[in-house]
From TrEMBL:
GO biological process: polyamine biosynthetic process
Species of provenance: Terrybacteria sp. (strain RIFCSPHIGHO2_01_FULL_58_15)
Location of the active site: 357
InterPro entries from the UniProt entry: PABS, SAM-dependent_MTases_sf
Protein's UniProt name: PABS domain-containing protein
């Protein structure tokens, strides 16, 4: 068969394999987080499935070197993708209650392996179809892997730079499955029976996928946005007997405010604002790392109308949601779309108050914002009489290692650090813990009380994924 037909097909299927791999991380994020464990599982399973596909495809090509079989494999890979999209909402929640390592591997196998094995079979098949004699095998192999790898590069870039920012992940994957199936069926137009059977399979699986992948909207849902980093939902619901507007990132509440007064709806947010307000000198320059729904910055602006407010967050979608749903005043807030650590490394300002609130997203605590080197940068940008407060989430005794390590590392930069457990929750429950650079009130406890068996986190060694494992398991149970 002509290279003008086969090589574009190899390019497209190569792109498809990487689009599927990259987008699977977003599919898994609400259930397993964006941890290194999940990423390693996805990469390992994809490489394993491709290896199996290479072996099976090579042997099948030697036995049945027919173009009809090649197009059948392409079509079947597309149907496999649509079936994955259809059934993922059912099996992923079941796997999320397992140990994160076991659940992540099983989820990767079920969601990725079938389609990836089929896609892996295509390259050796094309080599067999194109090679007329052994003298040309090397050249043809190089050409096939060139087009396949180039397609993978393009697919990777499209997934990260175009598809995720602009479209729902489920729709992209469903479209991917449809495109692959249609390409395969187009090559089988001379086999009417097989052609129509594949189209029927596509229609059924795509219909189920559309129904199951639709984002559930309840009466409380006001808006849903797919950002480059998470699915963001605006929800209005009752908290403490009062209606509140909240932001939900994946499955975790990021904050919100009461509709009747505009006050922060969650205790940790109110506690942070009250702690800052307790100091006798009004701050003139405030920095908040982690925007969420801008609850804390907005409340601090109300209390300190003359202060300069800078908010740093890596997610560009938060500002547009903040302006539309949370009353963010862009005239009063300097909004910086940037990684928090990069901001500290490049800014030449010093701040009276620094709020570190980028750690409450349980499924994706950024390790590089918890290390000794990071807190040293924070200390450098804190004014001589300044104050630093950070929020993290944990549960005792399950996550004592996580909390103890964060507290111990924070204390390396701020020796007078203190800790306040927020709320009255008992053991074995998720709760917020505030860590401050110095004691703002008598009820705050010395940092030493929470260090336990914790160790100092560094850029070289910060195993947050391991420390998070019991917390993720507890969250799944609750």
């Amino acid at each position: 068969m002509s290279a003008r037909i086969l090589y574009p097909a190899v390019f497209i299927t190569g792109a498809a394999s990487l689009v599927l791999e990259v987008l699977s991380l977003r599919v898994f994020a609400p259930h397993f987080g964006t941890t290194l464990v999940m990423t390693s599982s996805v990469i390992g399973v994809v490489l394993g499935a491709l290896s199996v596909g290479y072996v099976i495809g090579g042997r099948l090509a030697d036995r049945r070197p027919a173009t009809r079989m090649f197009w059948l494999l392409v079509a079947l890979s597309g149907i496999a993708v649509t079936v994955n999209v259809a059934f993922a909402p059912f099996f992923l929640p079941l796997l999320s209650v397992l140990d994160i390592r076991i659940g992540a591997i099983l989820a990767s196998v079920l969601f990725l392996a079938p389609a990836t094995v089929l896609l892996g079979m295509l390259s050796p098949y094309v080599i067999r179809l194109r090679a007329r004699d052994t003298a040309s095998v090397g050249t043809i192999s190089g050409e096939v892997f060139f087009f396949s790898t180039t397609g993978s590069i393009v697919g990777t870039l499209l997934a990260g730079f175009v598809f995720v920012p602009l479209f729902p992940v489920s729709r992209v994957l469903l479209s991917l499955g449809v495109i692959l199936t249609v390409i395969g069926c187009a090559g089988l137009w001379r086999s009417p029976k097989l052609f129509f059977m594949l189209l029927l399979g596509l229609a059924v699986s795509a219909s189920v996928a559309l129904a199951s992948a639709s984002v559930p909207r309840t009466e409380s849902t006001r808006a849903i946005t797919e950002s480059p980093y998470a699915q963001l939902r605006v929800e209005e619901l009752s908290i403490e007997g009062r209606m509140a507007r909240t932001l939900v990132s994946e499955r975790i509440f990021s904050g919100g405010f009461f509709l009747d007064t505009g006050e922060p709806a969650f205790p940790y947010s109110r506690e942070i604002v009250d702690v800052i307000s307790a100091f006798p000198v009004a701050p003139e320059n405030i920095l908040v790392i982690g925007a969420g729904p801008y609850t804390i910055p907005q409340e601090l602006i109300r209390r300190y109308p003359e202060a300069k407010m800078t908010v740093v967050d890596i997610d560009p979608a938060l500002l547009s949601l903040g302006k539309e749903w949370f009353g963010v005043d862009t005239n009063r807030i300097l909004n910086v779309v940037e990684d928090g650590r990069r901001f500290f490394r490049t800014t030449d300002e010093r701040f009276d108050v620094i709020v570190l609130d980028a750690y409450a997203a349980l499924y994706s605590i950024p390790a590089h914002l918890t290390t000794r080197e990071f807190f040293a940068l924070v200390e450098e940008d804190t004014a001589p009489d300044g104050f630093v407060v950070m929020n993290t989430i944990a549960a005792l005794p399950e996550a004592a290692g996580l909390l103890g390590s964060v507290v111990k590392t924070f204390s390396e930069a701020f020796p007078e650090a203190t800790v306040l457990p927020v709320g009255e929750k008992g053991a074995h429950e998720l709760r917020n813990f505030l860590i401050a650079s110095r004691a703002p009130a008598p009820e705050w406890q010395p940092a030493e009380n929470f260090m336990g068996a914790g160790f100092v986190l560094t850029d070289d060694y910060a195993p947050l994924d391991t420390l998070l494992t019991p917390l993720l398991r507890l969250a799944a149970q609750q």
